[in-house]
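Incident log, entry 3
Record: GNAT family N-acetyltransferase (147 residues)
Problem: checksum mismatch between cached and fresh output.
Input:
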Amino acid sequence: MLTDVLLRLASHPDWRQVAALLELCGLSSAGTAEAIENFHVALCDGRIVGCAATEHHGQSVLVRSVAVEPAYRDRGIASRLVEVLLMRARGTQARHGFLLSASAPAYFARWGFSLIPADKAPAEVRASSEFQHAVRTSALCMRCELR
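Fresh output:
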């Protein structure tokens, strides 16, 4: 577990670093400039080494763009980011969390996410650009209860 990591909300000046991190991790950076204020970032020595975001859609949140620089993986950074996102989501009117993962469904199961058919996600979640992109890449849809 890495303890000298600072988590904070992202801001517009963080956009380039977040986009570069997503690309490095093989994730799309499309739409991140417009959504940067939905991101949390993890900083180590003042540099962004991890990020994650949520999008609110009706009574649901879509967890997206969970990424950690390869040299900083397996240190609990992604776990801390996801925990913060879900804690904040529970403080809203959101009742369900959704995400799409091509490579880590077992990882997200620890927060109560389970696989569901993508067509069972609410229409407003399915209509999001993040969902549309991920479904085209054969990502698996997962859902959890927030209440």
